[in-house]
UniProtKB/TrEMBL annotation:
It comes from the Bacteria. Pfam families: Amidase. Belongs to the amidase family. The lineage of its organism: Bacteria, Bacillati, Actinomycetota, Actinomycetes, Kitasatosporales. GO terms for molecular function: catalytic activity. It comes from Streptomyces griseoruber. Residues 32-462 form the Amidase domain. Gene3D superfamilies: Amidase signature (AS) domain (3.90.1300.10). This is Amidase.
Amino acid sequence: MNQSNNPSELWCWTAGQMAEGIRTREISAAAVLDSCLGRIEQVNPALNALVEVRRDEAVEAAREADAAVAAGVDLGPLHGVPVSTKVNTSQRGHAVTHGVTAFADLTAPGDAACIQGLREGGAVLVGRSNTPTFSLRWFTDNALHGRTLNPWDPSRTPGGSSGGAASAVAAGMVPLAHGNDIGGSVRYPAHSCGLVGIRPTVGMVSGWEPTGELEVDLPPTFQSWAVHGPLARTVEDARLALHSMTTPDLRDPFGVPLAPAPDQSQAPGRVLLVRDVGLAKPQPAVGWALDEAAARLSHAGYAVEELEDLPLLAEASRLWFLLLWEDVRATLQPMIEQFGDDGIKTSLAGMYSVSADMWGAAPGLDAYIRGWARRGTLIRKLQEMLADNTIILTPVSAEVPFEHDADLSGQERFDRIAAAQWPMTCVPVLGFPAISVPTGLQDGLPTGVQLIGGRFREEQLLTAAAAIEAETPQAMPHLT
């Protein structure tokens, strides 16, 4: 196919432009959907980003959106905007497959709270995005749906676990996508595909889902670390999606009845640049991205200070390998052994090996309890550091997007991947918000950085991300 990116085509518009155009009747929701469906038909067969598209269902939703405009009713911020949802999250009438063959017909009885929030915000739900098996890899491939490709470079991963979401947005199939994150699963795919991805503060976006046929008692890390968040091509689109997904719901054991707080800072604050915490030296393209982001923030008035190290982030990353993977071993391992494919089993063995190098082959209950106790101390220390209008600038990963199946190519390579992902693994342990924002291309691959802010300071991060975005050349992959 020879598909050029013509800005006049509706699928090229931002979500904000689409919503405004529909609201003012410059365009219709039906026309926007038709453009996005056309783009899906052109590029999805090659990328395999969306594994289910129900055209009739989406067309009916767009028709209803246009009828609401004509009736003059109050419209949500995403009214008529096409959005994809991830196959590991409940959407009524659709399978929650988790990329597992045995779950292919596991139909959700209703919407998860965050999906309901997108509907109430006016979104037209268009397709279901691919994920690795059980969403436990940084690579998107599984025995049920197959592999998703990165639209910038088909030899590189689109990231995981929200790799289908990232590939779909980067390729122009939808302007926004839903994802979730317990170890970088929103931030890393956004980075790999040149997008903005937000991991909000734990509890901001409800994790509640109707259980249906598969009710699982999730372990403590999944309850208190996993979050839902959006992927988008622009910071403002990510903000719109986050506000719609924020649905205070106390059925989530860690849910909080809050909406994102306005950015109260009177002027740009302080930025602490952390390149390395002693785990993985950044590759040259990663160093370039950090330099560019620091310069752009400085131009915007932020006081940028480089730190030689920030040991608590390295310590939090090590705790991720103890607490999360001991939880998986104790609760989910039998299900993975029964239903998982060879890829997830090999990758999981790599994770256990990394953890064993840090904590021993059998850490035991004492180490697990001490790890949870230490986590609270690290949270307090980081919150004190970030309380005074301060944010932290880090890599997203110490490496450019990984080659496909790099985690399956031997333990030595897996060890390097695990070390490179320290910015992804430290944040969930601590429960702070973080955002991945692009900085441009190097050798044809996207680059980006991560910003970490104080708890419930999402708007502060979005403001800083917008300052980086303002000096970043806008680009979309040209798929041929």
